[in-house]
Design a protein that fits this description.
mainly alpha, single chain
Length: about 110
């Protein structure tokens, strides 16, 4: 779905964590980190256990130059993924955190 269609759904009052995740992903894919961040933040405020949203929130923060916020989002995402047994997201976030820490150490 494109951004306009998703925004139209939101404007009609169909707000949900899933819709906000979709909007965040669409904006992230479009290179609009600020809008992506806003939607991912809303998504995890509605559903703090949404580990995939935490993962992409961290990515959006990193792309916008906010390394500390990216790390914090990924740590939250890691805790969420572990709590619900989301092994794939846990593995991906582990890789992201290792890369982030490696860059910081260099």
């Amino acid at each position: 779905m494109n951004i306009a269609a998703l925004e139209k759904m939101l404007a009609k009052g169909n707000d949900s964590a899933i819709l906000r995740f979709g909007l965040g992903k669409a904006y992230l894919d479009d290179g609009n980190d600020e809008q992506a961040i806003a939607h991912f933040q809303h998504c995890v405020s509605v559903d703090p256990s949404y580990s995939a949203a935490w993962k992409l929130l961290g990515k959006a923060y990193l792309q916008s130059g906010s390394r500390e916020q990216a790390q914090a989002a990924w740590q939250q995402g890691m805790a969420s993924a572990q709590a619900k047994g989301d092994k794939q997201t846990e593995k991906e976030i582990t890789v992201f955190l290792k890369k982030l820490n490696k860059v910081v150490q260099e």
